[in-house]
Amino acid sequence: MRKNKTYHKKKTAVIFLFCVLILFGLIGRLVYLMIFQSDYYAKKADELHERERDIKAARGKIIDAKGTILAANKTVCTISVIHSQIAEPQKVMDMLVKELKITPEEAKKRVEKVSSIERVKTNVEKEIGDRIRGYGFTGVKVDEDFKRYYPYDTLASKVLGFTGADNQGIIGLEVRYEEELKGVNGKILTTTDARGVELNGIGEKRIEPIAGYDLYLSLDRNIQEYAQQEAMRVMEQKEAQAVSILLLNPQNGEIYACVNVPEFDLNHPFELGDDADEGSLTEKELQERLNQMWRNRCINDTYEPGSTFKIITASAGLESGVVTMEDNFSCPGFRVVEDRRIHCARRTGHGSETFVQGVENSCNPVFIDVALRMGVGEYYDYFQKFGLLQKTGIDLPGEASTIMHKEENIGLVELATMAFGQSFQITPVQLAATASSLINGGERIIPHFGVSIRDSDGVVIKEYKYEKGKRILSEETSEKMRYALEMVVKEGGGKNGQVEGYRIGGKTATSQTLPRSANKYISSFLGFAPADDPVVLGVCIIYDPQGIYYGGTIAAPVIRNIFANILPYLGIEKTTQNTPQDGNV
Ligand SMILES: [Zn+2]
User: What are phi and psi of 571, to 5 degrees?
Assistant: First the structure.
C-alpha cells in the first residue's frame, strides 16, 4: 500500500511537470506570434475585407419660403476598375476610352494599376453610367453618386453658395449649414481574398447612407428674382460696377431677398464671366478673380453709408433729448467746426427749418448740430448701444466688421462727419438691420435666412428662433422716426420712392468713395413700407454709376418698383390714407 502510494505520487509529479512544459511551450508560441508575427496576421485579416467604397449620402435640399427647391441633387456615377478581376483588359480599355472620352494611355494606366480599386472618373452622367453597366464586364464598378444642382443658375448665387468635388460647401449657406445638409456617407464592404478576388457566398455588405436634412429659408424666389431683374436693369442702364439689394422683414429679421449683381452661375462657379481670358491668368490670379466674383457685398464688404446714416443720428438725438421734432435750425450752406468749413449738399443753404424739415432736406448742418450737442461720449455710446460695433449675426460666413475710429481718436470734426455717415464704414446688412430695429418699435433684430431644418418627409427637426433682441430705442422715438422718414418720401429728397396707394418711409444717400479725387460715387436708398406698420425694409446700393449719381434720382426708383410689385404679393392692401395726418406725432 505504501509503495503504491509513493509510485502514485511520482506519477502525478511527472504528469504535472509535463503539463507545465506544454503550457510554457504554448505561451511561448503565442508570445512569439503576438509579438513577432502580429503584423503578418493583421495584414492577413485585413486582406480578407480590405475593399471598401463610400456610398455618398444625398445632401439636403435648400428650399425657399414658398416650397421652391433652390438647391437639389442630380444622380451621377463614379466609374472604377479592379485590376485583379478584369478578364478582358483590352475590351475594358476600349470601352473606357469610348464612353468616358479619356485617352487610351489614361485607360491603360487605370486598368493595369495593381490596386484594390482604382477610380477612373467621377461625376459621370447617369445615362453613361447605365450604359457602362450594360456591357457587363467583370472588374468594372459603376457606383451612383450625387452632384449638387441649382435649378435657377444665378439666383441668389452669393447667398446659396455651392459645393466642391467632395460635395462639401465652399461658400454661402452651403458652408454655414454644412453639418445639417451633409448627411452620413454609407459604405460598400467587399470581402475578398488576398489576391483581391471577391469571395463567393460573402459578396458585398452595404451600410446604407443617411440623407442630409433639408434647409428651409425665409428667402422668397419670386421676390429675389424680381429684385435681381431690377438690379440688373439699373446696373446696365447706369453702367455701374455693381448693384446690391437687400429686402427683409424689419419686425423679425427674415430676409426675403439678397441680390448682388453681377451674380454668377452656381452650376459653373469656377468659370469667370464672358469677357475674362482665363488662359492668360496665373493660378493665383484666377483664384483672386473667383474670390472677387463670389463676394457678397451686402455682408462681406463695408462702405461709407453717407446720408442713410442720418436715420441713426436722428434716432440718437431724439432719444437722448438734445433735439425735439419741432426744434428750429438754420442752414447757411455750411457749418464751421473747429478750423473746418463743412458744407451742406445745398451750397446756398436751406435757411430756417425745423428738425423734421432738416431730415426731409437731409441738411448736413442740422445733423452736425445734433451730434455736437450730444458730444463724442454720448454719440459714441449710442453708436455702441444701437449695435453698430458688433456683427449682426447673420447666418452667412465672412460677415465684415464695422471700421470705426477709436473713441479717444474722435475729435469734433470726426464727430461732425460721422453725423452724416462719413469717416467710418459699415456693411449694407448692418445698416439694414440697425435701421429695421430703429423703426420697428425699437428692438434689435438679427437678419437671417434659415427658418427650419426638416427631414426629407418634411418633419421639423430644428426651428431657428430669432427672438427680438434687446431694446435699443423707445417705442415713442421709433414712432417719431417712422413719421420723419415718411415725410422724407412725401415732401423731401425721397419723393421718387413713393408708391401710389402705400405709405412709404425712407432716406436717400449719395456718397463719394475714397480717394475723393477719383470722382466715384455710391448712390443708395433705404425704404420701408407701410410706414406706420412696416413689413418690408429695403436697401438698394449702386456702386460707381455713370452720369447722374444722386441716390434720390437713381436708387429710390429701384426700391419703388420693387415695393410696387411685392407689397400686393405680401398681402398688403392699398390704403386711401397714404400720407401721415398733420399733428400725427
Ligand atoms: Zn442745409
Answer: 85, 20
CA separation for the pair 119, 578 (Å, rounded): 67
Cα–Cα distance measured from residue 365 to residue 203, given in angstroms and rounded to the nearest whole number? 83
204 alpha carbon – ligand 1 mean position (Å):
80
Distance CA 437, CA 444 (A): 5
Contact 485/476 with Cβ under 8 angstroms? no
Provide CATH code, domain 51-217: 3.90.1310.10
DSSP letter assigned to residue 407: G
Q: What are phi and psi of 262, to 5 degrees?
A: -70, 130
- What is the rounded CA–CA span in Å between residue 396 and residue 393? 8
CB 53 within 8 Å of CB 119: no
Cell 458730444, residue located: 375
pLDDT in tens, 306-362: 999 999 999 999 999 999 999 999 999 999 999 999 999 999 999 999 999 999 999
Question: Which member of 80, 157, 218, 307 is catalytic?
Answer: 307
Query: What dihedral do alpha carbons 565, 566, 572, 576 form, nearest 10°?
Result: -30
pLDDT of 39-52, one tens digit each?
A: 655 555 555 545 67
pLDDT (tens digit per residue) in 48-90: 545 677 888 899 999 999 999 999 999 889 999 998 888 999 9
**Distance separating alpha carbons of residues 581 and 572, to the nearest angstrom:** 20
**Alpha carbon separation from 326 to 299, 318, 476 (Å, rounded):** 37, 11, 15
DSSP lists the bridge partners of residue 329 as 353
What is the separation of C-alpha 223 from the centre of its chain, rounded to a whole number of angstroms?
18
* Torsion angle, alpha carbons of 350, 355, 359, 363, to 10: 30
* For the chain, domain boundaries: 51-217, 303-497
What does DSSP assign to residue 241?
Answer: S
Task: Note the pTM of the prediction, 2 decimals.
Answer: 0.84
Gap from CA of 358 to ligand 1 centroid (Å): 7
Band (pLDDT 50/70/90 cuts) for residue 116 is: confident
Ligand 1 centroid, distance to 486 Cα (angstroms)? 19
CA 334 to ligand 1 centroid distance, Å: 7
pLDDT of residue 517: 84
Query: Is 307 annotated in the active site?
Result: yes
Question: Could you say which DSSP state residue 573 is in?
Answer: P
Distance 517 CA to ligand 1 centre (A): 23
CA atoms within 13 A on the CB side of 166: 7
CA dihedral 288, 290, 293, 297 (to 10 degrees): -60
Long-range CB contacts (< 8 A, 24+ apart) of 123-127?
Answer: 123/76, 123/78, 123/147, 123/165, 124/76, 124/77, 124/78, 124/79, 124/100, 125/76, 125/77, 126/74, 126/75, 126/76, 126/77
> In whole angstroms, what is the distance from residue 561 CA to residue 554 CA?
12
CATH number of 303-497: 3.40.710.10
- Count the alpha carbons within 13 Å of 282 in the hemisphere toward its beta carbon: 2
Cβ atoms 531, 487 nearer than 8 A: no
Residue located via cell numbers 449710442: 382
* 461-469 long-range contacts, CB within 8 A, separation 24+: 461/213, 462/180, 462/213, 464/395, 466/252, 466/253, 468/252, 468/443, 468/444, 469/387, 469/437, 469/443, 469/444, 469/445
